[in-house]
Amino acid sequence: MPRKPKALVFESWAVIAYLEDEPAAEHIADVVADAHDDGIPLFMCVVNVGEVWYIIAREASVSHADRSIKELRQLGIEFVDADWTLAHEAGGFKSKYKMSYADCFAAALSKHKRALLLTGDPEFKQVETQISIDWL
Predict the structure, then answer these.
(1) Does 133 reside within a domain?
(2) What does each C-alpha distance from 41 to 24, 38, 57, 115 come to in angstroms?
(3) Could you tell me the CATH number of the domain that includes residue 36?
(4) Model confidence over 22-37: pLDDT tens digits?
(5) CA-CA distances (angstroms) from residue 133 to 9, 16, 116, 121?
(6) 42 near 77, Cβ under 8 Å?
(7) Are 41 and 7 in contact (CB under 8 A)?
(8) Which of 10, 19, 21, 67 has the greatest number of beta carbons closer than 10 A?
(9) What is the pLDDT of residues 60-69, one digit of tens each?
(10) Which residue segment(s) compose the domain that 116 sits in?
(11) What residues contact residue 115 under an 8 Å CB cut-off, 6+ apart?
């Protein structure tokens, strides 16, 4: 992170990488620790939380998925509800770009919060001129 962001937004790619201890996990852990040290809030849209939950439930088990979501809360990630403002912004991204609808919510939350999005998902290259991205 070259300069301190106002906030950080997580999307499913980053969270799965962290939870499954993939190569980006250490960087994500460092970013989270730095954010805590600097008082930077951590956010994730509930649409993306649901995406993480179903991926883990499908690949492992419901109980493992539940534990993973609890771990995200323990990391201090605030889950943001998908209200009309966020859905409208996500719909705007979806109408212009070939992205999954869930990814559009992560982009919308990043834009709304003026936050840095953590991802390694190449789908977000389409919107990198509109939001700030920390490529993992």
Answers:
(1) no
(2) 20, 9, 27, 9
(3) 3.40.50.1010
(4) 999 999 999 999 999 9
(5) 9, 17, 5, 11
(6) yes
(7) yes
(8) 10
(9) 999 999 999 9
(10) 8-121
(11) 5, 6, 7, 8, 9, 43, 109, 132
Residue among 70, 26, 31 nearest 52 (CA): 70
Which amino acid is present at 135? W
Distance from C-alpha of 117 to C-alpha of 33, rounded to nearest angstrom: 16
Say yes or no to pLDDT of 3 above 60: yes
Domain count, the chain: 1
Given this model, what pLDDT does residue 2 score? Answer: 53
> Could you please report the per-residue DSSP string of 9-76?
EE-HHHHHHHHTT-TTHHHHHHHHHHHHHHT--EEEEHHHHHHHHHHHHHHT-HHHHHHHHHHHHHTT
